[in-house]
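Thread: Modeling a multi-component assembly for a lab meeting

Hi all, long-time lurker, first post. My supervisor asked me to bring a structural picture of a complex we are working on to next week's group meeting, and I have zero experience with this. I have the sequence lines for every component (231 residues in total). Could someone generate the structure of the whole assembly? Inputs are pasted exactly as I received them:
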Amino acid sequence: DAGITQSPRYKITETGRQVTLMCHQTWSHSYMFWYRQDLGHGLRLIYYSAAADITDKGEVPDGYVVSRSKTENFPLTLESATRSQTSVYFCASRGLAGGGTYEQYFGPGTRLTVT
Amino acid sequence: AQKVTQAQTEISVVEKEDVTLDCVYETRDTTYYLFWYKQPPSGELVFLIRRNSFDEQNEISGRYSWNFQKSTSSFNFTITASQVVDSAVYFCALSEARGSNYKLTFGKGTLLTVNP
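Re: Modeling a multi-component assembly
Sure thing. I ran the full set together rather than chain by chain. Output:
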């Protein structure tokens, strides 16, 4: 029962480079989410996806791109990394609300440092 | 717009003390969901509980209990006989039932330190 996994767990990259954070869930959950966690800001939603090929912006989407070609994967790409994107990134998933699942389950997080 | 306020930024207690973490929320929806998550020093976010807006029963799970009061828009979390392993950041979150998004809005979190 792997649940929801993220890779890499730690990443150091340079300003201007493209980096992709991976998220994979084994529950076949419809919804997937990307958050960033920063001191003083708590958890902020970057993007979310209601199903394969359906994505939408969250609170802080600028500088990020997502895709979801398969239900189980939801990669997050920083097209040209900036120091302000240094953060801990969490992926989460949730089943269909009609099935009684409203809570989100989180991956272990990816700590990204942009130098 | 929905909002969650956790006024206590940090709380420090001695083991075996009871501690209550406060959570106040704002929403215009009549149907919504409230959650508590725990983030221990290892960093993962662990789901603890969900309450529905139409169910005001308090809940107890071992040493944990939750008090939901719609009249004061509060969803407080009490740990009885705290232990060192309870040391973590605790987040309260709110989800409105608009459309099918059910996006979570988190409070800023309360850092609980339980000292031996």
